[in-house]
Amino acid sequence: MTKLFCFIVGITALALAGCGGSLSGSSPSGGNTNVTLLASSTANGRFAGYGIAFTSITLTNKAGKTVSLLSQPQGVEFIHLNGISEPLLTVSVPEDVYTSAAIQFYSAYFEVAYLSPTTGGPAIGHYIYLNVTPYPPVVNLPDSGLAINGAKMVLSLNLLVSQSATLASDTAGAAYTITPTFTLSPVNVAALPTNISNGKVDDITGSIQSVSQEGFSLLLDDSDGSSVPPITYNIDSGTVFQGIGGLSSLAPGMSVNLEAQFQPDGSLLATRVYVPNPTAADTMRGTLVNVNAVYPIGGFGVLSQIQDGAELSSQGPDRMGYGYESQTAFQISPAYTNPQNLPFPAVFNGASSTAIGQNVSVSSAGIGNYGGGNTTAVTVTLMPQMINGTVSSISNSGSYTAYTVILASNDSIVELGGATNVVIYAESSTQMLNTSPIAVGGVARFYSLVFNDSGTLRMDCAQINDGVAE
């Protein structure tokens, strides 16, 4: 669940479904194509959250005939999808070449995080359009149009975040605009997908709805409640289970993180399934906005992007204060880390290793069960995130290339009084998705886990993308 739906009453989420069939294409022949729509974003570090409740996504051909991709509203939080993607739905679309697309929304919001000039503590600015669209969304298609053909296709709906909102200043009542701007384009699925550009989907977070011998169904944490039909993921002998023993250990309501890839028949195969805490009642994922030692051992605040659990779903807090105790487990997501071989100590074990700006997933047994109305953290898991910045130096560190990256002054990490730079370590396995060479003075995005090494933020980099100007 996302904060977007705390502003919305009575919106029913769109039905989601697994996909099947061939991904091979052909010239439009008058039949129908099962189209799987992915959500993604391209963003810098300016905004801490950006969510949209879609009411309509339509395609129009050159004859003016319109096809709807949505039958009911669907909500998506986009900042956590910076440089990655997640499947939203599969819909049958008539084969044709579509020359334009249009989007309507019921609600859209963005958030910025900064230090309050009054209290000196973290403050969150919320900016929202509710049931009003003063600036219509923009959807950019390929120059030749969008050719829908074959039995199956995958499309990427990518939000260009820096073009989708403006904010005059980090002050109450500042002028702002929200103009969601997208690209909608085909994904060329490879036989063995390795990244976002060829059919792999990473870092999907949701809750298990049902389990079968073939796999499981998952409700995205972006979604609005249990009424949303989940997406089906298959497993095979190569599926890696982390945090649990295997498929038989999955249970309805369990919060999981996974990666998957499209198969030749159009289905989704889960290649990795990670359960940070099998017994969690509530889970919140987002950015650490403060770290302190107010509680008997320590505490921190999290600005949520996505969340699940009975209490979180009903209360929908956008920032949660947590306290932790001696039994609180600090752990590292096994998705993107190589701690034994890194040229720095990759640890995450409590106050000394936490830092403002890190992305975490926090599980709890309930809300407000700690002193002062805060919540006891049962597990705190370091999760991957995207860093955008200007490269100030490039060097070698063993088998790694080290990039020192300067964050923009309006980056959320900098605004909250965190670090001003991050040292990025890339190696031969790092996915190089950048089209512009990485050079001193250039801007790039780097994706993976961010560690706090005695006050210096360092990343074990899994993926590099073109940067986004601030």
Structure description:
The protein is an all-beta fold and 470 residues long. The chain folds into 4 domains: 3-192, no CATH class; 197-274, OB fold (Dihydrolipoamide Acetyltransferase, E2P), CATH 2.40.50; 282-382; 385-466, OB fold (Dihydrolipoamide Acetyltransferase, E2P) (Beta Barrel), CATH 2.40.50. It has 2 helices and 32 strands. The protein has helices spanning 310-315, 412-415; strands at 32-42, 49-61, 66-68, 74-77, 85-94, 96-115, 122-130, 138-140, 146-148, 152-160, 165-167, 176-178, 181-186, 200-211, 215-220, 231-234, 240-242, 255-262, 268-274, 282-292, 298-309, 319-324, 329-332, 359-364, 375-376, 379-382, 385-397, 400-406, 421-426, 431-432, 443-453, 456-466. Strands 23-26-24-20-21-22-25 form a 7-stranded mixed sheet. The radius of gyration is 21 Å and the shape is globular. Mean pLDDT is 87; it is low at 4-22.
How is the secondary structure organized here?
Blueprint: E1 32-42, E2 49-61, E3 66-68, E4 74-77, E5 85-94, E6 96-115, E7 122-130, E8 138-140, E9 146-148, E10 152-160, E11 165-167, E12 176-178, E13 181-186, E14 200-211, E15 215-220, E16 231-234, E17 240-242, E18 255-262, E19 268-274, E20 282-292, E21 298-309, H1 310-315, E22 319-324, E23 329-332, E24 359-364, E25 375-376, E26 379-382, E27 385-397, E28 400-406, H2 412-415, E29 421-426, E30 431-432, E31 443-453, E32 456-466
Parallel strand pairs: 1-10, 8-13, 17-19, 22-25, 23-26, 29-32, 30-32
Antiparallel strand pairs: 1-5, 2-3, 2-4, 2-6, 6-7, 6-9, 10-13, 11-12, 14-15, 14-18, 15-16, 18-19, 20-21, 20-24, 21-22, 24-26, 27-28, 27-31, 28-29, 31-32
